Sequence to fold (135 residues):
Amino acid sequence: MAAKLFEELIRAEQLACEVQSAGIATVAGLNLSALAKEVLSEQGLVCDHVTQLVSTELIAWADLVLTMTLAHKLYLCQIYPEAQHKIYVLKEYVQLLATESLDILDPFGGDLPVYRDCASELLSLLKELLSMLQN
Fold:
């Protein structure tokens, strides 16, 4: 959801930026969950996302790697030590450090309200990210 929401924000602002989404614990080629699609659809977005695993090529391609959790960041920094300088937790990068946790809770397994809450949190963080990139 984060990638699609951010793609929409950068499209609306006509910002030259590319976004890719990848996971560290997924199977390549899976479709977005039905509830994530429904939440995006409620915002007028159609998403045909297919999962991909993080790879050396993706890490090299990226100028910035944003994770949803601190555990993901630490894992990626361990696997790709040469890229540590560009790997951040999203909340850390946009400097929302006053929260109880840097983690964005994964809605997987939750109901529609859980997915909506996650999308709302992501949208708020991504708007802050967009503002940072524009400045």
